[in-house]
């Protein structure tokens, strides 16, 4: 445990790094932009269909889950590329597992989207 004193200034600076990470993610990661587009569509559809508060919670939760999974996947991939620039079977496993996390989150988001939107659009 660090013996440094708590500093509001340092806490505020940490937000700067986090926002820079978001910027880097959306500027440099193609999948991040795809997920952002899907999130904008889902949020727009949510406003248009006037979904309930609980439905908003579900939609925003799965959007966040996909973003978190994709950001962690991107970070793991970048780190793995530094650790092992050449192909390595164990690094491939790590990258595949990180990508699988994104896939699971995306499948959940699609399922929640169907549950929330399909009845309002077609029933």
UniProtKB/TrEMBL annotation:
Assigned GO CC terms: plasma membrane
Protein name according to UniProt: Diacylglycerol kinase family protein
Main location: membrane
GO terms, molecular function: ATP binding; kinase activity; metal ion binding
Subcellular location: Cell membrane
Positions bound to substrate: 70
Similarity comment text for this entry: Belongs to the bacterial diacylglycerol kinase family.
Residues given in the record as ATP binding sites: 17, 77, 95-96
Family annotation (Gene3D superfamilies): 1.10.287.3610
